[in-house]
Amino acid sequence: MQEGFFIFIGGIQPRRVTVDPAPRRCPRCGLHTARLQRMDHYLSLFFIPLLRVKTGSEFLACSRCGEQPAASPDPPAEESGEGVCRFCRKSFPAGYLYCPLCGRRL
Ligand SMILES: [Zn+2]
Ligand SMILES: [Zn+2]
């Protein structure tokens, strides 16, 4: 037995996983030095992750600024209360059947 070995050998441990190794733009510093990561929790034994018990939410880990909340994907047009014309690319309040700017059917 190893004396003074205080680190517990089994249990739930957080584990940082890289979701996407491709560099992403950091929302704070604007540089492409952030990577999409996630903090999962694993049931581990003897430091070997055996089973993922919890999938964490994704975040951006910037090498300059640290962890940043991941940019949320753009909400659908219906939920944002705004429509965008696919012809002239102007935005206007939702509910139009025809673009109020170019008059084309949406
Ligand atoms: Zn940054
Ligand atoms: Zn239009």
How would you characterize the overall build of this protein?
The chain is mainly β and about 110 residues long. The protein folds into two domains: about 10-70, no CATH class; about 75-105. It has one helix at about 75-80, and strands at about 10-25, 35-45, 50-55, 60, 65-70, 80-85, 90-95. The strands form two sheets. Strands 1, 2, 3, 4 and 5 form a five-stranded antiparallel β-sheet that branches. A two-stranded antiparallel sheet has the order 6-7. β4 and β5 (about 65-70) form a beta hairpin. It starts with 9 loop residues before the first strand and ends in a 13-residue tail after the last strand. One zinc ion binds next to loops.
Notable traits:
single chain; 106 residues; mainly beta; 2 domains; 5-stranded antiparallel sheet; 1 helix; elongated; binds zinc ion
Quick overview:
The chain is 4% helix and 46% strand.
Can you list the ligands bound to this structure?
Answer: zinc ion
The radius of gyration computed from the alpha-carbon positions, rounded to a whole number of angstroms, is: 23 Å
Distance between the terminal alpha carbons, to the nearest Å?
Answer: 73 Å
What's the helix count?
1
Structural class: mainly beta
Number of domains: 2
Helix content: under 10%
Mean pLDDT, all residues: 82
Estimate the global geometry from the Cα principal axes: elongated
The major beta sheet can be summarized as: 5 strands, antiparallel
Number of strands: 7
- Beta-strand share of residues: over 45%
The string of secondary-structure elements, in order, is EEEEEHEE
Unreliable runs: none
